[in-house]
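Predict the 3D structure for this chain.
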Amino acid sequence: MLMAGCAPRVATSFWRIGSPADSTRAGYAVLREGKKVRHCYPVSEWTDTLPSFEGEVGGRHDTYHSFHHHGVAVESEQMAYRIYFDKKQTIDIYCKRSPRLELATSYWYPDDSLLASGYGDDIIRVSGTVGVGSVKYWNGKKHVHIEPVAERSERIVRQSRNKATIEVANKGWQVEGKNVDMAVQYTLQAGHRDMRCDVFLSAPVQGLCTGVQSIPAKNPNPESKIINLKLNKGIILASWGTDWPVNDTVKFAKETVGLAVFIPNEYVGDLVQDQSNNLCILKHSAVGSQQSANYHAHFYLTCVGVTKEDKPVATDSAEWIDYLRRWAATLK
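Done. Predicted structure below.
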């Protein structure tokens, strides 16, 4: 518990969508996404069991539409990230004009008055891509989502004033002829725009991958850049470009965005690309029993929103590369 006067510098957000009948639940609130009004209550974890690997179409297994902002989220004063609670499990980004915590007010969807007062917003359209630092599977031709699984869950693992960890986990993932349990944890520290990602597996998966999407994800233009930097400590996969952050191209303006992941040498496998993604196959090492897993890998992700930040760390692709080299030098 935080002492009086010790305001948090990181925060988490995980809201189950309910009905007016949930008004007696602790923390109940009426939240909005555009014109949608939702009766929600906070949760710290949620598990969905998928019967006979039937998938996630409709009903109680449509976890994506069962949670406000579609999954668990975490923020520092610099950035906010959410994990889609479905087979995509993609990381999406909320960027801020000035350093502060915002999700307790905007709940990821700032209205016009909040935007006018300087609040941040979602800056990228991830669609079916890897986004930035999501964990996917490489099938030899393209990346695919994490399916089928027997059970999928998301949770807030831990939170203190200066650090928070969120997780997406799968049990009974049918892949490469076996059932694999996988937990992916993302840790964000106060004052940071970057997150550390730790992947725990019950068995090795040869096609496990991560990376960054191209910007735009569809029909990249001449200004879109894919960047690979081989460093002494590891490799950076990055991208740079401009795109609309949502499908509404009338109300919203295009955003210029830089994405990157840094992977330490011991986890770097083959580099691969498909139509919309720049990816690296992840090697993983045996670590014994940890989080009910026997194999582990870790990497880091970061981003910049040029048109959304008042003081972005880079304003063009050359500055982004310079920043990433300095950033990677600070990582372990």
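The CA atoms of residues 31 and 38 lie 5 Å apart.
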